[in-house]
Design brief:
2 helices, Glutaredoxin, single chain
Length: 84
């Protein structure tokens, strides 16, 4: 049975980079065979704008998320590439 992963992104963080992060997550999910079921959710502002863009995975907040950090988070929580 696949584990369920919840990824939340605050609305104001979209202007700070989460729009690109969402595109990266969607591309990662499409390209890779993942070992988890992923639920992508929006949320209201988390009041941590200075640390953004912020992404919350299963209730744990991550700050200043860029594609490099996001790639490592996705590998850890969602699953690895087919070839790895």
């Amino acid at each position: 049975m696949k584990s369920r992963i919840r990824i939340c992104m605050g609305s104001s963080c979209f202007r700070r980079g989460n729009r690109k992060n969402l595109e990266f997550i969607e591309a990662y999910m499409e390209k890779n065979q993942c070992s988890a079921d992923v639920e992508l959710l929006g949320s209201r502002c988390e009041e941590e704008c200075r640390k953004g863009p912020n992404i919350q995975i299963n209730g744990q907040m991550f700050h200043e998320v860029n594609e490099e950090i996001l790639y490592d988070l996705l590998k850890r929580y969602v699953g690895k590439n087919q070839g790895e």
